[in-house]
Write a structure and sequence with these properties.
about 230 residues, transmembrane, transmembrane helix, membrane, Phosphatase PAP2 family protein, mainly alpha, PAP2/HPO
Length: about 230
């Protein structure tokens, strides 16, 4: 097995293990109500720190990484990458690096079906009532998928700055979901781990290039061609 094939196989294995680990963690959390009760106290402590500026930031993040806006950002980013690279294959690959991990998170949600923190147990009612299940965090997943994809796309010279910005955006998103009282800490932590792993694994899988075909020797004479005798003057 060549090193390239081994890397792709390892990426598939890593992706599968990340998905199984996330799903297993969620099922264990659901089976232990006392754990959710302990996390509710943490959510209450973060949610109770209520001020106009954090409110505005958290609500802005809620809109930015909500499904309608996030889909628009994904399409625009993919189109820009396709335009710059002059390759619609690259554009589709960029969109897939964001959309597939995002979809993976929603699959885990459907399998785990963890309820959201109860608004009645929180000191501040944000008024935001998501319709999906709690585990893992969809907003955190979207921000992580977008930012990690951008990190992988930027030139190497800008990579450190992109990583720093990505960490700030992802952490801010994770904080905002707990601050608004719509997610437990383990919900956002799982998305912060699962999604970057999924993006990097898919980047390796979709980045594989097949080896170029061997050149076909050029024929001087076709199979049905015969040398004609040179005519004498």
């Amino acid at each position: 097995m060549t090193s390239a094939r081994f890397s792709v196989a390892a990426a598939w294995t890593l992706l599968g293990l990340a998905f199984l680990s996330a799903t297993g963690t969620g099922l264990l959390l659901n089976a232990a109500p006392s754990w959710s009760s302990a996390e509710t106290r943490i959510v209450g402590a973060v949610n109770g720190f209520h001020a106009p500026v954090p409110d505005a930031v958290a609500r802005g993040i809620d809109t930015l990484f909500g499904t309608p806006v996030a889909l628009t950002i994904t399409v625009v980013l993919a189109a820009v990458v396709g335009r710059i690279s002059r390759s619609w294959t690259t554009a589709l690959r960029t969109g897939a690096l964001i959309a597939l991990p995002w979809s993976l998170v929603y699959l885990v949600k459907l399998l785990v079906r963890r309820p959201r923190p109860a608004a009645a147990d929180l000191p501040y009612a944000s008024g935001i009532e998501p319709s999906s299940w709690s585990f893992p965090s969809g907003h955190t997943a979207v921000s992580a998928a977008l930012m990690v994809t951008v990190v992988l796309l930027v030139p190497v010279g800008l990579r450190l700055a992109a990583i720093a910005i990505a960490c700030v955006v992802i952490l801010a998103t994770a904080w905002s979901r707990v601050y608004l009282g719509v997610h437990y800490p383990t919900d956002v932590m799982t998305s912060m781990i699962l999604v970057p792993v999924a993006v990097i694994a898919l980047h390796r899988i979709t980045g594989r290039r097949s080896s170029p075909p061997h050149p076909v020797p050029r024929r001087i004479h076709g199979p049905d061609q015969r040398r004609r005798p040179r005519s004498r003057p």
